[in-house]
Amino acid sequence: IHRILAGRQTTRIDIILDPLYGTGLMMAKLDSLRQAADLLARGDWRRAHTIAQEDESKTGCWIHGIVHVLEGDLDNARYWYRRAGREFPNAFSIDSELASLRETLSD
């Protein structure tokens, strides 16, 4: 993947290694994940799903799993929890999951 950054062509590895761009990218992703958490708290899992689909981080996968619980697709939710490296909760509580998610996003 090639991109233009500050007037020069870069590869994906350049973006990852560029500390200024990397920090900005990380903050933008963090803001998006926080927005997804806010949407989930309001019950808007469709918009949260759109955000989660764009983020392949473990936290993005966790959000994706929560989305699928809320829509009632538990098999898919379990898949996304595995991708997130998280155990699927036996007694799912959206309030508990959102509290844990927000704590993770505030670190």
Characterize this entry briefly.
This protein has 107 residues and is mainly α.
E-strand count: 2
Question: Strand count, sense and closure of the main sheet?
Answer: 2 strands, antiparallel
Order of helices and strands: EEHHHHHH
Structural class by sheet pairing and helices = mainly alpha
Architecture overview:
This protein has 107 residues and is mainly α. The chain is 70% helix and 7% strand. The chain has helices spanning 12-17, 19-41, 45-53, 58-70, 74-84, 94-106, and strands at residues 2-5, 8-11. Strands 1-2 form a two-stranded antiparallel ribbon. Helix 2 (19-41) packs parallel to helix 4 (58-70) and helix 3 (45-53) runs antiparallel to helix 4. It is globular and about 30 Å long.
Reconstruct the topology from this structure.
Elements (H helix, E strand, L loop, with lengths): L1 E4 L2 E4 H6 L1 H23 L3 H9 L4 H13 L3 H11 L9 H13 L1
Antiparallel strand pairs: 1-2
Helix pairs in contact: 2-3, 2-4, 2-6, 3-4, 4-5, 4-6
Short descriptors:
two-stranded antiparallel ribbon, 107 residues, globular, mainly alpha, disordered N terminus
